Inverse folding.
């Protein structure tokens, strides 16, 4: 199940994408809840490989890939994109997405969006 939300401070709208995958509702979200200023999106491209009781396994990502997250931020109209859920490595359940942060930064810049990669405990100042 995908759960996402929008936080609206009155001056700023932040989209938090939870563990979302690419879908066809990005435009609708932007139309109904936009403009989105900051999009926080997962980039780990999680593929569940060997999960007990889930057979056969799926080769498709259940979470956004870095490039998909960049496109989602673009479709939401975000001017800043923040990656999350990367750098995790728990074989055999799932493996780290290679070069996820670099791929995300490159992809969002190509779309004219400012990437904001934050360290744990760091916060974003617009």
């Amino acid at each position: 199940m995908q759960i996402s939300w929008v936080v609206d401070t009155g001056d700023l709208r932040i989209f938090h994408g939870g563990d979302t995958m690419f879908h066809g509702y990005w435009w609708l979200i932007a139309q109904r809840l936009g403009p989105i200023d900051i999009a926080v999106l997962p980039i780990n491209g999680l593929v569940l490989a060997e999960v007990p009781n889930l057979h056969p396994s799926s080769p498709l990502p259940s979470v956004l890939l870095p490039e998909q997250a960049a496109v989602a931020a673009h479709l939401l109209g975000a001017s800043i994109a923040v990656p999350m859920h990367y750098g995790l490595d728990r074989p055999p359940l799932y493996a780290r997405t290679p070069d996820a942060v670099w791929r995300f930064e490159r992809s969002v810049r190509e779309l004219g969006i400012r990437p904001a990669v934050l360290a744990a405990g760091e916060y974003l100042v617009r």
